[in-house]
Amino acid sequence: MQTEAFSELFPLLTAANPETLEWLLSVAVEHEYPANRAVLMEDAWGNAVYFVVAGWVKVRRLSGSSEDNVVTLAILGKGDFFGEMAILDESPRSTDVSALSSVKLISISAQRFIQTLFKDPQLHHRMLQLMVRRLRQTNIRFQLRHKPPAVKLANTLVALGENYGQDSNNGTEIFNIPPKDLADVSDIGVEETSKIMEKLDSKGWIKIDHANQSMHLVNMKQLMHLAGKV
Question: How many CA within 13 A on the CB side of residue 176?
Fold first, then answer.
């Protein structure tokens, strides 16, 4: 990957100087995983920062050995990154990262990434900006906790579309997130999620392409209105 493509793909790196990008690429390690494969185990946090080159992953909280005790905390797509908090905070993690789709990642070891932050103040500042944005998004989810399920789900869909969506002839295209994961992230029930998704589909606001494992947010304006963002 060329340095220009590297910075264009990852918003975190847009402020980094060319020397920083070249250094990061020179020490980066590439990874590929199939869908449903564990990408980062709970005992491996803090070893590296991971960048999503292609595909979708989910961050899960583990509270037991059963799948019933696993909750999806976040869904991340191309251009995002994870693991940055763990290299700064050495507290134990009870979370892991799993591939929703086939996924391509690159990793940079914790030591090298921290060295880079010290060398490039602009990158350091940019990472702080993005971390604050994540905290803001978490606060928004907290503020939505008493809102109707449809509003919560619409917020999740809009956020996924805005952060990771690709323009297509049928609107904004995202991965067809499984109902359980959508429900967890939206803080609503799985049955409620399925009913709301069926209603949104019947209205023509979304269209699910099961063959290509994709979801099209056909009417983003109406979804944003439902989410209370317009």
Answer: 13
**Domain extents for the chain?**
3-142, 147-227
E strand or H helix at 29: strand 29-33
Question: Per the confidence metrics, is the pTM higher than 0.85?
Answer: yes
What's the pLDDT band for 13 if we cut at 50, 70, 90?
confident
| CATH assignment of 147-227, among 2.70.40.10, 1.10.3720.10, 1.10.10.10, 1.20.810.10 | 1.10.10.10
- Using alpha carbons only, what angle is made at residue 210 by residues 35 and 11, rounded to the nearest 5 degrees? 55
Third-level CATH fold of 3-142: Jelly Rolls (2.60.120)
* Torsion 99-166-82-65 (CA) sign: negative
pLDDT tens-place string over residues 34-80: 999 999 887 778 789 999 999 999 999 877 655 667 899 999 999 99
Q: Which residues pair with 99 in a beta bridge?
A: 57
